[in-house]
Specification:
The complex is a heterodimer. Chain A is mainly α. In chain A, about 75% of the residues lie in helices and about 0% in strands. In chain B, helix 1 packs across helix 2. The chains are: A mainly alpha, B mainly alpha.
Protein backbone atom coordinates (compact mmCIF):
# COMPACT_ATOMS: atom_id res chain seq x y z
CA UNK A 1 0.00 0.00 0.00
CA UNK A 2 1.26 3.48 -0.86
CA UNK A 3 1.88 6.20 1.68
CA UNK A 4 -1.07 8.60 1.60
CA UNK A 5 -0.15 11.93 0.05
CA UNK A 6 -2.46 13.92 2.27
CA UNK A 7 -2.28 14.05 6.03
CA UNK A 8 -4.93 12.01 7.78
CA UNK A 9 -6.50 13.50 10.84
CA UNK A 10 -5.88 12.00 14.26
CA UNK A 11 -9.65 11.62 14.77
CA UNK A 12 -10.00 9.65 11.55
CA UNK A 13 -7.18 7.30 12.54
CA UNK A 14 -8.71 6.79 15.97
CA UNK A 15 -12.13 6.06 14.45
CA UNK A 16 -10.58 3.40 12.21
CA UNK A 17 -8.71 1.93 15.17
CA UNK A 18 -11.94 1.75 17.11
CA UNK A 19 -13.43 -0.87 14.75
CA UNK A 20 -11.96 -4.37 14.52
CA UNK A 21 -12.84 -4.44 10.80
CA UNK A 22 -10.78 -1.29 10.05
CA UNK A 23 -8.17 -1.69 12.79
CA UNK A 24 -5.31 -2.69 10.52
CA UNK A 25 -6.04 0.08 8.03
CA UNK A 26 -6.13 2.61 10.86
CA UNK A 27 -2.86 1.27 12.23
CA UNK A 28 -1.24 1.53 8.81
CA UNK A 29 -2.37 5.16 8.54
CA UNK A 30 -1.00 5.80 12.03
CA UNK A 31 2.40 4.44 11.05
CA UNK A 32 2.46 6.36 7.78
CA UNK A 33 1.45 9.54 9.54
CA UNK A 34 3.92 9.47 12.43
CA UNK A 35 6.77 7.17 11.39
CA UNK A 36 9.14 9.90 10.23
CA UNK A 37 8.77 12.12 13.29
CA UNK A 38 9.13 9.13 15.62
CA UNK A 39 12.04 7.73 13.65
CA UNK A 40 14.06 10.94 13.84
CA UNK A 41 13.27 11.34 17.52
CA UNK A 42 14.56 7.82 18.17
CA UNK A 43 17.49 8.13 15.77
CA UNK A 44 18.81 11.23 17.54
CA UNK A 45 18.75 9.26 20.77
CA UNK A 46 20.31 5.99 19.59
CA UNK A 47 22.34 7.46 16.63
CA UNK A 48 22.69 4.23 14.61
CA UNK A 49 20.09 3.58 11.87
CA UNK A 50 19.73 -0.16 12.54
CA UNK A 51 19.21 0.47 16.23
CA UNK A 52 16.68 3.19 15.45
CA UNK A 53 14.84 0.84 13.10
CA UNK A 54 14.63 -1.87 15.77
CA UNK A 55 13.44 0.56 18.42
CA UNK A 56 10.84 2.10 16.11
CA UNK A 57 9.46 -1.29 15.05
CA UNK A 58 9.23 -2.36 18.70
CA UNK A 59 7.51 0.91 19.46
CA UNK A 60 4.88 0.36 16.72
CA UNK A 61 4.28 -3.23 17.80
CA UNK A 62 3.69 -1.97 21.33
CA UNK A 63 1.27 0.63 19.97
CA UNK A 64 -0.54 -2.03 17.90
CA UNK A 65 -1.13 -4.10 21.03
CA UNK A 66 -1.97 -1.31 23.43
CA UNK A 67 -3.85 1.34 21.47
CA UNK A 68 -6.86 0.58 23.69
CA UNK A 69 -4.85 2.11 26.55
CA UNK A 70 -4.87 5.47 24.79
CA UNK A 71 -7.47 7.42 26.74
CA UNK A 72 -7.54 10.50 24.53
CA UNK A 73 -6.41 12.76 27.37
CA UNK A 74 -3.46 13.96 25.28
CA UNK A 75 -2.87 14.13 21.55
CA UNK A 76 -2.19 10.82 19.86
CA UNK A 77 1.28 11.84 18.74
CA UNK A 78 2.15 12.96 22.29
CA UNK A 79 1.24 9.46 23.47
CA UNK A 80 3.29 7.95 20.63
CA UNK A 81 6.28 10.15 21.52
CA UNK A 82 6.06 8.93 25.09
CA UNK A 83 6.18 5.29 23.99
CA UNK A 84 9.01 5.98 21.55
CA UNK A 85 10.98 7.83 24.24
CA UNK A 86 10.54 4.99 26.71
CA UNK A 87 11.59 2.44 24.11
CA UNK A 88 14.69 4.45 23.19
CA UNK A 89 15.70 4.91 26.83
CA UNK A 90 15.16 1.20 27.53
CA UNK A 91 17.31 0.36 24.52
CA UNK A 92 20.11 2.72 25.61
CA UNK A 93 20.08 1.34 29.16
CA UNK A 94 20.30 -2.23 27.84
CA UNK A 95 23.15 -1.23 25.56
CA UNK A 96 25.00 0.37 28.48
CA UNK A 97 24.50 -2.74 30.62
CA UNK A 98 25.74 -4.99 27.82
CA UNK A 99 28.83 -2.82 27.33
CA UNK A 100 29.50 -2.75 31.08
CA UNK A 101 29.24 -6.52 31.45
CA UNK A 102 31.23 -7.41 28.34
CA UNK A 103 34.98 -6.93 28.14
CA UNK A 104 35.01 -7.58 24.38
CA UNK A 105 32.15 -5.26 23.52
CA UNK A 106 33.83 -2.01 24.48
CA UNK A 107 31.82 0.83 23.03
CA UNK A 108 33.70 2.93 20.51
CA UNK A 109 33.54 6.74 20.87
CA UNK A 110 30.62 8.43 19.11
CA UNK A 111 32.98 10.32 16.80
CA UNK A 112 34.31 6.99 15.46
CA UNK A 113 30.78 5.63 15.13
CA UNK A 114 29.66 8.66 13.15
CA UNK A 115 32.66 8.49 10.83
CA UNK A 116 31.89 4.85 10.10
CA UNK A 117 28.14 5.44 9.76
CA UNK A 118 27.09 5.33 6.10
CA UNK A 119 23.90 7.18 6.99
CA UNK A 120 25.54 10.20 8.62
CA UNK A 121 26.67 12.97 6.31
CA UNK A 122 27.14 15.85 8.72
CA UNK A 123 30.12 18.17 8.43
CA UNK A 124 32.69 18.70 11.17
CA UNK A 125 30.50 21.19 12.98
CA UNK A 126 27.54 18.77 12.94
CA UNK A 127 29.80 16.04 14.23
CA UNK A 128 30.90 18.26 17.09
CA UNK A 129 27.26 19.01 17.83
CA UNK A 130 26.51 15.28 18.07
CA UNK A 131 29.55 14.78 20.32
CA UNK A 132 28.37 17.66 22.49
CA UNK A 133 24.90 16.09 22.78
CA UNK A 134 26.45 12.82 23.84
CA UNK A 135 27.99 14.60 26.84
CA UNK A 136 24.58 15.72 28.10
CA UNK A 137 22.64 13.75 30.70
CA UNK A 138 19.99 11.61 28.98
CA UNK A 139 17.00 13.69 30.07
CA UNK A 140 18.68 16.95 29.10
CA UNK A 141 19.54 15.51 25.70
CA UNK A 142 15.92 14.49 25.23
CA UNK A 143 14.72 17.99 26.10
CA UNK A 144 17.25 19.55 23.74
CA UNK A 145 16.26 17.22 20.88
CA UNK A 146 12.53 17.75 21.33
CA UNK A 147 12.92 21.54 21.38
CA UNK A 148 15.78 22.07 18.93
CA UNK A 149 14.94 19.46 16.28
CA UNK A 150 11.27 18.59 16.78
CA UNK A 151 10.25 22.15 17.70
CA UNK A 152 7.96 20.92 20.40
CA UNK A 153 6.21 23.34 22.76
CA UNK A 154 7.03 23.10 26.46
CA UNK A 155 3.51 22.01 27.37
CA UNK A 156 3.57 19.10 24.92
CA UNK A 157 7.05 18.22 26.09
CA UNK A 158 5.71 18.20 29.62
CA UNK A 159 3.00 15.73 28.54
CA UNK A 160 5.59 13.47 26.91
CA UNK A 161 8.21 13.53 29.66
CA UNK A 162 6.02 14.10 32.69
CA UNK A 163 8.15 17.05 33.84
CA UNK A 164 6.96 20.55 34.74
CA UNK A 165 7.18 23.29 32.11
CA UNK A 166 9.48 25.36 34.37
CA UNK A 167 11.91 22.49 34.83
CA UNK A 168 11.90 21.83 31.08
CA UNK A 169 12.72 25.48 30.28
CA UNK A 170 15.60 25.45 32.75
CA UNK A 171 16.81 22.11 31.37
CA UNK A 172 16.76 23.35 27.76
CA UNK A 173 18.56 26.59 28.61
CA UNK A 174 21.28 24.65 30.44
CA UNK A 175 21.59 22.17 27.59
CA UNK A 176 21.97 24.91 24.96
CA UNK A 177 24.68 26.63 26.99
CA UNK A 178 26.58 23.38 27.55
CA UNK A 179 26.38 22.38 23.87
CA UNK A 180 27.61 25.75 22.69
CA UNK A 181 30.49 25.68 25.18
CA UNK A 182 31.45 22.19 23.98
CA UNK A 183 31.37 23.18 20.30
CA UNK A 184 33.47 26.26 20.95
CA UNK A 185 35.87 24.13 22.94
CA UNK A 186 35.49 26.24 26.05
CA UNK B 1 2.14 26.29 15.03
CA UNK B 2 4.10 29.03 13.26
CA UNK B 3 3.92 31.06 16.42
CA UNK B 4 5.56 28.25 18.40
CA UNK B 5 8.28 27.86 15.74
CA UNK B 6 8.99 31.59 15.81
CA UNK B 7 9.11 31.50 19.58
CA UNK B 8 11.57 28.60 19.53
CA UNK B 9 13.81 30.36 16.99
CA UNK B 10 13.80 33.60 18.97
CA UNK B 11 14.52 31.75 22.19
CA UNK B 12 17.48 29.93 20.58
CA UNK B 13 18.90 33.12 19.05
CA UNK B 14 18.81 34.65 22.50
CA UNK B 15 20.53 31.66 24.09
CA UNK B 16 23.05 30.71 21.41
CA UNK B 17 23.39 32.52 18.08
CA UNK B 18 25.82 29.78 16.98
CA UNK B 19 23.28 27.00 17.42
CA UNK B 20 20.56 29.15 15.86
CA UNK B 21 22.75 29.59 12.78
CA UNK B 22 23.57 25.88 12.63
CA UNK B 23 19.90 25.05 12.82
CA UNK B 24 19.14 27.33 9.88
CA UNK B 25 22.02 25.99 7.81
CA UNK B 26 21.39 22.30 8.16
CA UNK B 27 19.05 20.53 10.46
CA UNK B 28 19.47 16.90 9.67
CA UNK B 29 22.88 15.26 9.34
CA UNK B 30 21.41 11.76 9.41
CA UNK B 31 20.05 9.85 6.44
CA UNK B 32 18.04 6.67 5.98
CA UNK B 33 18.39 3.90 3.35
CA UNK B 34 16.43 4.57 0.16
CA UNK B 35 12.77 3.56 0.39
CA UNK B 36 13.00 2.95 4.14
CA UNK B 37 9.83 4.81 5.12
CA UNK B 38 7.87 3.30 2.22
CA UNK B 39 8.54 -0.23 3.35
CA UNK B 40 8.44 0.29 7.13
CA UNK B 41 4.65 -0.13 7.63
CA UNK B 42 4.72 -3.43 5.71
CA UNK B 43 7.77 -4.59 7.67
CA UNK B 44 6.04 -3.85 10.97
CA UNK B 45 2.77 -5.54 9.93
CA UNK B 46 4.71 -8.56 8.68
CA UNK B 47 6.45 -8.83 12.06
CA UNK B 48 3.14 -8.52 13.92
CA UNK B 49 1.54 -11.25 11.77
CA UNK B 50 4.54 -13.52 12.23
CA UNK B 51 4.47 -13.06 16.01
CA UNK B 52 0.70 -13.54 16.13
CA UNK B 53 1.05 -16.66 13.99
CA UNK B 54 3.49 -18.07 16.50
CA UNK B 55 1.11 -17.31 19.35
CA UNK B 56 -1.82 -18.90 17.46
CA UNK B 57 0.21 -22.01 16.66
CA UNK B 58 1.31 -22.37 20.25
CA UNK B 59 -2.10 -21.70 21.78
CA UNK B 60 -3.93 -24.83 20.43
CA UNK B 61 -0.93 -26.95 21.41
CA UNK B 62 -1.14 -25.65 24.94
CA UNK B 63 -4.91 -26.12 25.05
CA UNK B 64 -4.66 -29.66 23.61
CA UNK B 65 -1.87 -30.62 25.98
CA UNK B 66 -3.83 -29.27 28.92
CA UNK B 67 -6.98 -31.14 27.88
CA UNK B 68 -5.03 -34.32 27.27
CA UNK B 69 -3.41 -34.15 30.67
CA UNK B 70 -6.74 -33.54 32.35
CA UNK B 71 -8.38 -36.33 30.34
CA UNK B 72 -5.60 -38.76 31.24
CA UNK B 73 -5.82 -37.85 34.91
CA UNK B 74 -9.58 -38.35 34.80
CA UNK B 75 -9.22 -41.68 33.00
CA UNK B 76 -6.65 -42.78 35.54
CA UNK B 77 -9.16 -42.18 38.28
CA UNK B 78 -11.58 -44.45 36.42
CA UNK B 79 -9.11 -47.33 36.55
CA UNK B 80 -10.37 -50.00 39.07
CA UNK B 81 -7.46 -49.64 41.51
CA UNK B 82 -7.72 -45.84 41.66
CA UNK B 83 -11.51 -45.94 41.61
CA UNK B 84 -11.54 -48.32 44.57
CA UNK B 85 -8.91 -46.27 46.40
CA UNK B 86 -10.89 -43.11 45.74
CA UNK B 87 -14.13 -44.79 46.80
CA UNK B 88 -12.42 -46.02 49.98
CA UNK B 89 -11.22 -42.50 50.78
CA UNK B 90 -14.69 -41.11 50.18
CA UNK B 91 -16.23 -43.83 52.38
CA UNK B 92 -13.66 -43.19 55.13
CA UNK B 93 -14.22 -39.43 55.02
CA UNK B 94 -17.97 -39.91 55.03
CA UNK B 95 -17.74 -42.43 57.88
CA UNK B 96 -15.43 -40.12 59.83
CA UNK B 97 -17.79 -37.26 59.36
CA UNK B 98 -20.75 -39.45 60.30
CA UNK B 99 -19.09 -40.85 63.41
CA UNK B 100 -17.22 -37.84 64.77
CA UNK B 101 -19.34 -34.88 63.77
CA UNK B 102 -20.44 -33.45 67.12
CA UNK B 103 -23.95 -32.53 66.04
CA UNK B 104 -24.35 -35.63 63.88
CA UNK B 105 -26.80 -38.44 64.39
CA UNK B 106 -26.24 -41.00 67.12
CA UNK B 107 -23.70 -43.71 66.35
CA UNK B 108 -25.23 -46.62 64.55
CA UNK B 109 -24.29 -50.19 65.23
CA UNK B 110 -22.65 -51.46 62.01
CA UNK B 111 -23.51 -55.06 62.66
CA UNK B 112 -27.10 -54.11 63.35
CA UNK B 113 -27.21 -52.17 60.07
CA UNK B 114 -25.79 -55.13 58.17
CA UNK B 115 -28.10 -57.49 59.94
CA UNK B 116 -31.07 -55.44 58.89
CA UNK B 117 -30.22 -56.08 55.22
CA UNK B 118 -31.90 -58.99 53.51
CA UNK B 119 -29.99 -61.50 51.38
CA UNK B 120 -31.72 -60.11 48.31
CA UNK B 121 -30.63 -56.54 49.10
CA UNK B 122 -27.02 -57.66 49.61
CA UNK B 123 -27.05 -59.60 46.33
CA UNK B 124 -28.55 -56.64 44.48
CA UNK B 125 -25.91 -54.30 45.95
CA UNK B 126 -23.09 -56.63 44.93
CA UNK B 127 -24.53 -57.04 41.42
CA UNK B 128 -24.87 -53.30 40.93
CA UNK B 129 -21.42 -52.50 42.33
CA UNK B 130 -19.48 -55.50 41.13
CA UNK B 131 -16.99 -53.23 39.25
CA UNK B 132 -15.95 -51.59 42.48
CA UNK B 133 -14.91 -54.79 44.18
CA UNK B 134 -11.27 -55.74 44.39
CA UNK B 135 -10.67 -58.54 41.87
CA UNK B 136 -8.13 -60.25 44.13
CA UNK B 137 -10.56 -60.41 47.02
CA UNK B 138 -13.33 -61.75 44.75
CA UNK B 139 -11.03 -64.50 43.43
CA UNK B 140 -10.08 -65.48 46.97
CA UNK B 141 -13.72 -65.55 47.95
CA UNK B 142 -14.64 -67.69 44.93
CA UNK B 143 -11.85 -70.17 45.65
CA UNK B 144 -12.72 -70.61 49.31
CA UNK B 145 -14.52 -73.88 50.02
CA UNK B 146 -17.61 -74.19 52.18
CA UNK B 147 -15.50 -75.78 54.88
CA UNK B 148 -13.08 -72.83 54.85
CA UNK B 149 -15.99 -70.48 55.23
CA UNK B 150 -17.34 -72.50 58.12
CA UNK B 151 -13.92 -72.50 59.74
CA UNK B 152 -13.66 -68.75 59.28
CA UNK B 153 -16.96 -68.43 61.10
CA UNK B 154 -15.95 -70.80 63.88
CA UNK B 155 -12.32 -69.98 64.41
CA UNK B 156 -12.76 -66.48 65.81
CA UNK B 157 -14.80 -67.93 68.70
CA UNK B 158 -12.06 -70.32 69.80
CA UNK B 159 -9.50 -69.00 72.28
CA UNK B 160 -5.92 -70.27 72.74
CA UNK B 161 -6.91 -72.20 75.86
CA UNK B 162 -9.76 -74.08 74.16
CA UNK B 163 -7.56 -74.82 71.17
CA UNK B 164 -4.82 -76.31 73.38
CA UNK B 165 -7.35 -78.43 75.27
CA UNK B 166 -8.82 -79.61 71.95
CA UNK B 167 -5.37 -80.51 70.65
CA UNK B 168 -4.41 -82.32 73.90
CA UNK B 169 -7.63 -84.36 73.78
CA UNK B 170 -7.59 -85.29 70.11
CA UNK B 171 -3.87 -85.21 69.37
CA UNK B 172 -3.71 -88.92 68.85
CA UNK B 173 -6.58 -88.88 66.37
CA UNK B 174 -5.08 -86.11 64.20
CA UNK B 175 -2.85 -87.31 61.42
CA UNK B 176 0.54 -85.68 60.87
CA UNK B 177 -0.68 -84.42 57.52
CA UNK B 178 -3.72 -82.67 59.01
CA UNK B 179 -1.56 -81.19 61.77
CA UNK B 180 0.78 -79.65 59.21
CA UNK B 181 -2.23 -78.20 57.42
CA UNK B 182 -3.49 -76.63 60.63
CA UNK B 183 -0.12 -75.11 61.43
Amino acid sequence: MQTPLTAISEDHILRLLDEPRTYEQGFRFLMEQYQERLYWHIRRMVIDHEDANDVLQNCFIKVYRSIQNFEGKSKLYTWLYRIATNEAITFLNQKKRRAASSIDEEESPLSNQLEADAYFDGDELQQRLQNALEQLPEKQRLVFNLRYYDEMGYQEMSDVLGTSVGALKASYHHAVKKVEAFIRGV
Amino acid sequence: MMKEKDHIREELEGLSPLLAKMKEDKQQPFRVPAGYFQSLPDDVLRRIRAEEGLVREKAPEIRTAWRERLGKAFQAFLQPRYAIALASVVVLVAAGWYLFWPAGPAMAEPSATLASLSQEEITEYITNNIESFDIGLMVEAAMASEEDVRNIEVMPNIGDKELNEYLDEYIDEISLEDLEKLL
